[in-house]
Amino acid sequence: MRKTRLPTPATLKRAWQHTAGRLAAVVLGSLLLGLLTGHPWPVLCAGLLGVLVWHYAQLHALLGQLNRREWLQRPDAQGVFAELARVLHLRQRENRERKRRLLGTLRAFRQAAAALPDAVVVLSRREQRIEWFNEASEHLLGLSYPKDIGSRFSNLVRSPQVTAWLEAGAAEPLIDVQGTGAEGLRLSMRLLEYTPEEQLLIARDISKLLHLEQVRRDFVANVSHELRTPLTVLHGYLDMIEPEDVPEWSGMLSEMRRQSGRMTQIVEDLLTLSRLESRESLPHERVDMPSMLSALRSEAEAMSLGRHRIEIDDRAGCDLLGSTKELHSAFSNLVVNAVRYTPEGGRVRVEFHPAAAGGVSLCVVDTGPGIAPQHLPRLTERFYRVSSSRSRDSGGTGLGLAIVKHILQLHQAQLAIDSEVGVGSRFCCVFDARHRIERGAV
């Protein structure tokens, strides 16, 4: 785009000289005419008034054209007003070119947004009214153009889940919400900052992804069920054979028992995960935390066999609201891991403390080898191991933390992990204030 060519000092000088020359000519002409008529001063005043009126007329005409947004023609005359009109003409041409480019960019943006498979909706920040949406929004969200422009988003997408999410600030993406467009759609939604006055809502169809996830869950559950019976039979036959009867097979029998036991535990853990993933909530009951902590101590001491220092620190002074069975499974997994990976002479400490915002946390702290930072984000993935032999050599299945994560998610709780190599690890189950019950309260 060409830039406006502003007048140079020489051009301005010539323009002012031309205007001054005109004024001088009017003054001299008026004086000569006045001397000839015998009335020099009245004729001179009339001439100057004429110059003033002419300048006013030029200015009035120019302002009128600008006010009416008329296209200014580039003048061929000279003088200050001609130079002003010339600059304004160039400015108009520059603005017209800029507008054309902006319209082209906007058209390209709308075409790109319309081609997106995701629903894109521009909302006003204050009232979350719809300002614009693409074609995919009609299919996924059931919006209709142009009648829905200006309407509140929550009035058109009638979902208590979506409404509560928007009212809460939509800080985190909303996963698996029923679409209001085509039947059977499942959506994920994100709300992004767009402009100081607008927000951008993006909805994506995850129906196929959820279907594939369900197929995976069914496959794992079915395979686990099918493996359980032959493993039970194999384990039973191995138990019937005494190593003393066939001393030459004692080593093989011991290894077969160990491997079949490990396979049985993997199958049981997979079935536990499938059961947890198929549930959306758990029954809520009072979880007696003093009894829970006592049971965790007994389990840790039984597994440690005196090789570790086991400590319990109960400062919360409250119970939890949740499933006693599932929470015991989660807490026990963390305690067993701590004992399993902490060297002899180390310490395993279970802390039940108050947390931020009226919540409460149960933390398992050990003095084990610690975990490098790059492994922490993936610890709750299935079968993820910090080292290829760590879980296998210690008897773990690689599924314990995945089970803990799912149990906590069903309790709307979080698993926080902090670890330092050579110092130890800290695994915390953090519950919000809704899951806290004061002891003695009914």
TrEMBL record:
The keyword RNA-binding does not apply. GO terms for cellular component: plasma membrane. The keyword Membrane applies. It is found in: Cell membrane. Its EC number is 2.7.13.3. InterPro entries: BphY/WalK/GraS-like, HATPase_C_sf, HATPase_dom, His_kinase_dom, HisK_dim/P_dom, HisK_dim/P_sf, PAS, PAS-like_dom_sf. Its main location: membrane. Keywords: ATP-binding, Cell membrane, Kinase, Membrane, Nucleotide-binding, Phosphate transport, Phosphoprotein, Transferase, Transmembrane, Transmembrane helix, Transport, Two-component regulatory system. It comes from the Bacteria. Gene3D superfamilies: 1.10.287.130, Histidine kinase-like ATPase, C-terminal domain, PAS domain. This is Phosphate regulon sensor protein PhoR. It comes from Aquimonas voraii. The lineage of its organism: Bacteria, Pseudomonadati, Pseudomonadota, Gammaproteobacteria, Lysobacterales.
